[in-house]
Amino acid sequence: MFSKAIVRTPGKSLINGLTDSKHLGSPNYSRALMQHQSYIEALQLCGLEVTVLDPCEDYPDSTFVEDVALITPSCAFITRPGAESRRGEVEKIIDVLKSQFGNIEVIEAPGTIEAGDIMMVGSHYYIGLSDRTNIHGAKQLIGLLQKHGYTGSTIELKEVLHLKTGLSYLENNFLAICGEFTSDPAFEGFDQIEIPESESYAANCIWVNDNVIIPSGYPLAKNNLSRAGYNILEVDVSEFKKLDGGLSCLSLRY
Ligand code: CIR
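^ Those are the sequences you sent over. The predicted structure of the assembly is below.
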């Protein structure tokens, strides 16, 4: 169960965030703010106490807080984003993590990791090797995880930005899965809930205390996830989709 979350209000500079989805247009800032507020309310409805950090205009992508830290039950890890324009975001979150976690581990150069590439399944952590997360970062993280009694393994990404762009672990062995991951033997042992390619954006959904929060507007995904017995909450995050960001990226949950 989770009891807390950290989010960061998007700054006006959000419109300059990194994206491979220019065809979707530029995010509308006031709509993004409203959507972000609805996202916070959904987390609160699931029982979480949400810490809301101030906007950080220097870093357009800083609302995607998930990428700069991995929080485990015994320790927080500060990542080193592969996107250079995002590297300084870690300095902006380190104090809040230090105030909440006694134990902080740090990924160092030449390692890079964005935690959108990390999926926690109990005490095991799957780490996607992507344009943002390299083998040095993954190896460092696996070593640090082992020090704290956890395990880790790597998954090569072919198409998507981050591992959790196409996968979400929903507890009780259920895995929402889409695209390139459906044929990966690493995930054979899970009860797979397939998200159709036409609704691939909804593969990034989040389990929060037996609820699953999904992006609104994906009826096939919603139907498949409801059949697995979850209480589904829908949040419109269309403005964040324009920056390749999904639901998981917008919070650190612990
Ligand atoms: C980026 O490209 O870094 C941001 N525009 C989106 C980050 C999304 N984060 C995630 O999937 N964990």
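Helices lie at 29-45, 89-100, 135-147, 219-227, 238-241. The chain is about 20% helix and 25% strand.

Shout if you want it in another format.
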